[in-house]
Design brief:
heterodimer, A: mainly alpha, MetI-like fold, 2 domains, two-stranded antiparallel sheet, about 5% strand, disordered N terminus, B: mainly alpha, flat
Chain lengths: ~325, ~300
């Protein structure tokens, strides 16, 4: 996907065309605009304008009945209410909890995703088999997330399969309570649902690695680990970056997984926004959304910097 | 490397891969089994006999929740999103090959739409449509025009929810079109043009048939992502919910295997769609290879 990004964001050539070609070029240009227009329109109406409106409404006043178009910073003050007082305010605690989920999910999905992609890309020899295994990993992505969350209930519940098996084997005497509706089950579901977002870009990066580089490393006497760390990992960094961006933004804004797997008891930033939205406190929800967006943007910027740093050195 | 014997690492990694696949599919298989629970059975093992009792109960309806209405709405919306995603992404892909001013901006917006948290997008669209409603009501009060007085809301399945879904499916569609056009050989188009085909003829008779297997892939993304979409729809839909939204509500209220039966049903539908799409894609590829159009 990085190649795509490069080719698409490169500036269009500004060389003046010969006179005989200008009419044709202009027609091509007009056609290009026409063909891109539907997509541009959809993103304008359903993405750009909504974000701008969110920014605008985050500065509006509101009461129990309506929102009032008058400028105020109160919504942002409310978001950080009590944060200056030293101990942790609600917002910071919520962000800390969400960041914890984020870090754990990121770590696990990266480890699992990298290992799986590495196996399929470098240890499976036939291209057909590679494609089949790759598909096997991606098919669940196209099925319902909620159902995939619910499907943990018979395994993790108080009388679930895991507890029954452990008790049957005599490892534990009474069922473990915190398997379901806990931080554990939330992270488990996040990893279950989001590892695919790591596998696909990392596999894509690995598939582009020239196999003769590995041969060269082997011939020069590098061990398997040395080859992995000094050849494969650096060349896979774009894929790792893209996967990380996906996982981080999906977890940061989540309210469904935390809601269902946390038994509606665990706070998350997305859930705060959802609750305020359903209480019709729209400006407050908008302010929270803008803060979340800013936090996510900072994280993405940090990640892209980490990746590009090596190229700059 | 391929001529060297399998190393110990291979077997370790293969075992890890198998564990991962078990982790991926295991839970779904458990609810598949438990949805055939006997009438006396509960939400967990052991199985209390085998029956289709819970499917029967599901068929009769889940109390006040109109589950079949929701399923039908999700299906229709998914189809509309699928068609729009294929059409819009295909033409945008064509446009990006020609290069045009603003292409960098459009690409950035598409990628941003993919990575901005869904709840933020959903909230924004919800806000937009609420403000629109307010504006219409204001206009109705100001003008007194009769046809404006009855206004309820512009928010709905084919307005705000459709838009919310497109912000999620179109970036995927565009990225796939990029990958596809990167590997597309323009010689086919030049040949068609040299033979006197017009632009639209070239697209219809050369480009589309060659790209058909990939377009099926875009359609698969469009439908399944819409059919399962939840976060972006949540704040951007009027009174009538889609299936994933109803499902989310049911997770806290339904305490019988009915919900597993519903899970088996929707997963089965998703799998049927995936199988159809993959089958169609494979068939189109084979047909093209047979007709000697070569690999593009």
């Amino acid at each position: 996907m990085t190649d795509i990004a490069l080719s698409a964001s490169a500036p269009a050539p500004a060389v003046p065309a010969p006179a005989s070609l200008t009419a044709k070029t202009r027609r091509r240009q007009a056609l290009a605009y026409l063909q891109a227009a539907p997509m541009a329109l959809v993103f304008l109406v359903f993405f750009v304008v909504p974000l701008l409106l969110t920014l605008m409404v985050s500065f509006w006043e509101y009461n129990e009945y309506e929102i009032i178009p008058a400028f105020t910073l109160q919504n942002y003050v409310d978001v950080f209410d009590g944060c200056a007082a030293g101990d942790l305010c609600t917002t910071f605690r919520t962000y800390l909890s969400t960041l914890k989920f984020c870090a754990l999910t990121w770590g696990f999905t990266l480890l699992i995703g990298f290992t799986v992609a590495y196996f399929v890309a470098f240890h499976v020899r036939s291209k057909t088999m590679q494609m089949a295994l790759f598909l096997l990993c991606t098919i669940p992505f196209w099925t319902s997330n909620v159902i995939r969350m619910i499907s943990w209930i018979p395994l993790l519940g108080r009388n679930g399969l895991v507890n029954d098996t452990l008790m049957g084997m005599g490892i534990i005497k009474s069922p473990i309570e915190g398997l379901l509706y806990s931080d554990f089950s939330v992270v488990l579901a996040f990893v279950h649902l989001n590892t695919v977002f790591m596998i696909v870009p990392i596999f894509n990066s690995m598939a582009r690695i020239d196999r003769s580089l590995l041969e060269a490393a082997y011939d020069s006497g590098a061990t398997g680990w040395q080859t992995l760390w000094n050849v494969v990992v650096p060349l896979t960094k774009p894929g790792i970056a893209i996967g990380s961006i996906f996982v981080v933004t999906l977890v940061m804004g989540d309210f469904v997984t935390v809601g269902v797997m946390g038994g509606q008891q665990i706070a998350s930033v997305g859930k705060v926004i959802q609750v305020q939205m359903s209480a019709l406190q729209l400006p407050a929800a908008a302010a929270n959304a803008i803060v979340l967006l800013a936090a996510v943007m900072v994280m993405i910027a940090a990640m892209t910097r980490l990746i590009d740093l090596r190229k700059e050195l | 490397m391929s001529d060297r014997p399998r190393s110990a690492a291979f077997y370790g990694l293969a075992a890890f891969f198998c564990l991962f696949v078990a982790f991926l599919y295991g839970p779904t298989l458990t609810i598949l089994a438990l949805s055939f629970q006997g009438p006396q059975g509960g939400l967990t093992f052991p199985m209390n006999g085998v029956s289709t009792h819970w499917f029967g109960k599901l068929w009769a309806g889940l109390g006040i929740v109109d589950i079949w209405g929701a399923l039908w709405r999700s299906l229709r919306l998914g189809l509309v999103v699928m068609l729009l995603t294929v059409g819009i992404a295909f033409f945008a892909g064509l446009a990006f090959r020609k290069r045009f001013r603003g292409e960098g901006a459009l690409f950035t917006v598409a990628v941003a739409s993919l990575i901005v948290p869904s709840i933020v997008v959903s909230l924004g669209i919800g806000l937009e449509f609420r403000l629109l409603d307010e504006a219409v009501k204001g206009a109705a009060a100001a003008t007194g025009w009769g046809w404006l007085q009855e206004h309820g809301t512009v928010m709905g399945l084919y307005s705000s929810a459709l838009g919310a879904h497109l912000t999620w499916t179109l970036p995927f569609g565009l990225l796939i079109m990029f990958a596809v056009f990167n590997r597309f050989d323009p010689a086919y188009e030049e040949a068609a043009r040299d033979l006197g085909a017009t632009g639209p003829q070239t697209v219809r008779n050369v480009v589309v048939p060659i790209l058909a297997p990939s377009l099926v892939g875009v359609a698969l993304f469009g439908f399944t992502l819409s059919f399962d979409e939840l976060a972006r729809t949540s704040q951007a839909i009027g009174g009538r919910n889609t299936l994933p939204l109803e499902l989310q509500g049911l997770t806290t209220t339904v305490t019988t295997p009915e919900i597993y039966a519903l899970g088996t049903l929707t997963t089965g539908m998703s799998l049927a769609v995936i199988a159809t799409a993959l089958g169609a894609s494979l068939y189109l590829q084979r047909r093209r290879a047979r007709r000697g159009l070569g690999a593009a």
